[in-house]
Amino acid sequence: MVGLHATEGEPRPLRSLRVPDEVPQFGALQAGDQVLLSGTILTARDAAHARLVALLESGQELPVELRNQTIYYTGPTPTPEGKIIGSCGPTTSGRMDGFTPTILRAGVRAMIGKGPRSAEVIAAMRETGAVYFYAFGGCGALYAQRVRSMELLAFEDLGPEAIYRLEIEAFPLVVAIDGSGASIF
Amino acid sequence: MTAMNRANPDPEPGVQHGKRLIPAEEIYRRLYDGIREMNVVLAADVVAALRAARESESPADGTRPQSRTGSPSAPRPAALPGAACFVLDSILENADIAEREQLPMCQDTGFVLVFVEQGHDVRVEGEPLDRIIHRAIADAYRDGRFRNSVVGDPLNNRTNTGTNLPPAIHYDHVDGEHLTIGCLAKGFGSENYSQTRMLKPTAGPNAVVQAVVETMERAGGNCCPPVVLGIGIGGTMDWAARLSKKALLRDLGDHHRDPYYRDLEERIMNAVNGLGIGAGGLGGGTTALGVHIETYPTHIAGLPVAVSVNCWAERKAVVRW
């Protein structure tokens, strides 16, 4: 299949990528590519997705800009004294599937989580050219150590499920589903 | 039988009327410490198994089984060379960082299961044991800044209890004057794939292997492999499930004492690793780090088999008196 790796071969080189600056280069990413992702991302999981979609569907203004953004599905543990963030590994992405096509059409260009996605999500990714990154389940301390700053953006009442802006440095990820719809799952 | 049943430590002062007395505060303190530590420091046996797995993986290999979960419309690479090494390196680095930074290794700090084995000749002094256990869990989760992950009602009103209480506590009363308390913090990314099956009484060992293989095929990469599998065989449906959890308390490499079941553990391990699910579900030969079987007598008409799937973050603490 064109664009996919053969069974044999060298490991894919680790590729450094910065968001949102390098979002225009997402077209070159292929399912299976190993990436160190840096830059600015947003956190949002179940409850934040439900609220964002409710606002979008009723035509109201969003409390955050979604265009060109990357969303990380995580609900960190409480931030310990003197730390930037608590443990923040990925949660299961499939629970967000029902909301994701609407979120992608609102401008989100990348998602980070774990586990496969629905056919509807893959179709919406093809339509918008968005990319889905796989983060390693359980590695909450590793991802926490690579967060440089955390700032509350919206839905403070949701606690760990609120939307935060994170500055990240070298998140280890694998491209799980690329903009053409090719998938590692 | 298990780590739970092992050596009775030195008898201590406080024996009264033929009963060994253990003060509540001592139990609380050691349990509290064990619960704090298990969420932050990955057990040495698990780290060793992960290191051995990393050594055995070849960066150039990455063959994977056919997809069982993917969308048929989505093309899929047949191999992801180097991906398993990338995942295992990240898991090992995560363990180092968690210990150094005193952060929970995973943000899902789990539902707590407790296995108590209390000798007939031992008495807890000062507070009922279940209250001590509750207090140790609530305080450890608060002070460790672990995520409270328990809702008070499973269906009607899923409100967080705010304390990570209650745990599920199992009590065994045995001969002697020792007390052993084993704790697991069970993450639900893996627990959602645990299963109990009622096999036919004459189904034999192949059917047991097959039941475990099917459980892992269903779980795929979603249960955060490489996994530790606890397998309970015998008893009733619930008893087998309970044994499958108790089996997770054993150290990796601490095999069943009966050679028949030791061989079965090895067969299951090989069958599961042959699935090619691999670390993080990205392929390779390391799907399971260990397989522990626990058995119990059962009814002539049945063969219950329970499989508890635990992610690589096997958080366990065993405290002995």
In short:
The complex is a heterodimer of chains A (185) and B (321). Chain A is of the alpha/beta class and 185 residues long.
Structural notes for this entry:
The complex is a heterodimer of chains A (185) and B (321). With 185 residues, chain A is α/β, with parallel strands linked by helices. Chain A has a single domain (36-177), classed as Fe-S hydro-lyase, tartrate dehydratase beta-type, catalytic domain (fumarase). Chain A contains 4 helices and 7 strands. Chain A has a 5-stranded mixed barrel. In chain A, a hairpin with an 8-residue loop joins strand 6 (147-154) and strand 7 (163-177). Chain A is globular. The two termini of chain A are 16 Å apart. Chain B has 321 residues and is of the alpha/beta class. Chain B folds into 2 domains: 3-40 and 106-186, Dihydrodipicolinate Reductase, domain 2, CATH 3.30.360; 58-65 and 79-98 and 188-315, no CATH class. Chain B has helices at residues 24-38, 44-56, 83-101, 129-143, 188-191, 204-219, 237-246, 259-273, and strands at residues 15-16, 19-23, 111-119, 122-125, 168-174, 179-186, 195-199, 227-235, 288-298, 303-310, 315-320. In chain B, the strands form 3 sheets. Chain B has a 4-stranded mixed sheet with strand order 5-3-6-11, sandwiched between helices. Chain B has a 4-stranded mixed sheet with strand order 7-10-8-9. In chain B, a hairpin with a 2-residue loop joins strand 1 and strand 2. In chain B, helix 1 (24-38) runs parallel beside helix 4 (129-143), helix 2 (44-56) runs antiparallel to helix 3 (83-101) and helix 6 (204-219) runs parallel beside helix 8. Chain B starts with 14 loop residues before the first strand and ends with a strand. The mean pLDDT of chain B is 92. Classes of the chains: A alpha/beta (185), B alpha/beta (321). At the A-B interface, helix 4 and strand 7 of A face helix 3 of B.
